Amino acid sequence: MALTITYDGYGVVANADSTTNDTGGSGTGDWKELGGGSYSLSPDASKYGVASIGSKYASKSGYTYIDGITALDYSGGGAQEGEMIYIWVMMLSPTPLDDMATNPYNIVLGDGTGSLNEYTVASKADSNGWDGRWRVFAIDPTVTPTIDGGADISAVDTIGVWMDTDTSVRAESFYISQIISAKGLRVEGTSTTFYDDIVLWAEDYANRAAGMFQSRGQTYFSLGSLTIHSDTANTVVSADGSNVEYEKCEFYNGTDWTTSYSTTANVITTTDTGGNTVSLIDDNIGMAGNSANKLAIDTSSGSNYEKNGGYLKYLSTLSASSGDTFSGTVISLYDVRTLGAETYSSCTFDGSATLTVGSTADFNNSNIINGVSSVNSCSVSELSYISSNKFNSSGSNHGVELTSIGSGSMTWDCITTDFDTGSTGSPVTPTSTGNEDIYVNVGAGEITINVATGATLPSIRSAGATVNVVAGQVDFKFTVSPTITDYEYRIYSVTAKGSLAGASELQGLEVTTADNYTYTYTYSSADAIAVQILPHDNDYEESITYYNLSANNQSVTINLKPDINN
Description:
Blueprint: E1 4-7, E2 11-14, E3 30-35, E4 38-42, E5 52-56, E6 61-72, E7 84-91, E8 105-111, E9 116-122, E10 135-139, E11 147-148, E12 156-164, E13 174-182, E14 184-188, E15 190-191, H1 194-202, E16 213-216, E17 219-222, E18 225-228, E19 235-240, E20 243-246, E21 250-252, E22 257-259, E23 267-271, E24 278-283, E25 286-288, E26 295-301, E27 304-308, E28 311-319, E29 325-327, E30 330-333, E31 337-338, E32 343-345, E33 348-351, E34 355-356, E35 368-370, E36 378-380, E37 390-392, E38 400-402, E39 409-412, E40 415-417, E41 438-440, E42 446-452, E43 460-462, E44 466-481, E45 487-493, E46 504-509, E47 516-522, E48 528-535, E49 543-548, E50 554-559
């Protein structure tokens, strides 16, 4: 099944292929001019099809626009709520335009009363980096315009361009091509060249000029949302290599250049629909929002999102599910983020916001969290949620903000660089430089932090809780099999394997409630220990097994033998 791609919204409003009865939308719109210029169907330049609407303004000003289209309703609850207007425009040169004070080149929306809202996008001297070549502008009608003429956004029926020139020109030099109303694109089907296929569809200029997705060189550029769905069949799409950049699209608001499209438009969504599933796999794909419009990814309603390598830059929100995985990805976080149940392994986290890791997250997989000045890198209620990761300091941030003392004992199993030097102690002597490995943000109580072998001895700041730091702690964990919870266990230090003679009890419990227990110790030598299991019923025999302590954590299974004499 090939890809099926559609506009997410109304679709084509005008094709700019005829001055009367334009074939876009309802097919009833006519092009008109209000002012001192002239217009005609021009074969000299086009983005869609073979012609566009060309205008001439020689030291004149005026408004060239499509009129009589089916009214579009962008108001809350309206049929086009959340959609943007995409309009292709081109000018041979910005030179004929007047200066910014006259608002010389405006995208204009009007209603049936003649009221107009105008968005200034260029002038003779300042066009925000635009040189006049074909460009699609995305206008969110709900954004306060440069000139607020009071147009009713629930009844937009004219769309065009206002031009004010102070130089005489001899020919048409301003052009308008296809106009579209949409949130972005909707995609369904199967593809291993996902983004390439979208570009081929969007840039088929003989049939469409879908400016919300374009390519320049090896980079894809997007304005608007991308929704991957499965209404009619399972959707499986993947891509390998290249970058997806969500562009800025701005207008001059009278003081500054600011975004002209929805601040929530940069979103990729996967959603299982129609009883079918959606799977998206990105290998070595970079995705980036921008400082005005950050990136959002929502795969929580899809079946599988797999991102291997690449980057996520200017990331604001990410809603994922337990089946989603991120491996070797550089994630630049620009808003506070709480991890869900997705898996992260060997990822690098940059950015300017705190990462919160909870109990559902699968995060103990050699991730790197880089510090940002005056921002706590990570927030957790339990240190086990972030074990086996690395934290790098910016010089003025805490690596981890610990928000709970839990049961009073936690294990620290992370590597850090450039934080304050840590020390042991019961209690430890805390510091308050703002560059500690761990900030225990709890005002009372007592916690012991056991430092695992190979982990960095952490520096500590406390909001009032008593903190003990014990280094060199190692875990010996046993699990009985088959699973039983009604038994007595004892762990002994023994002088020789095979005998309990002269044994010294290290830990034990007469009535158990779990099939596994952990003995934590400070390693000094490979001493021999014995684990004794005494089942309370007669189904299994008593068990004694022998082990040597290790400098590393170890986990063993004790296989119980059925009592055949019972």
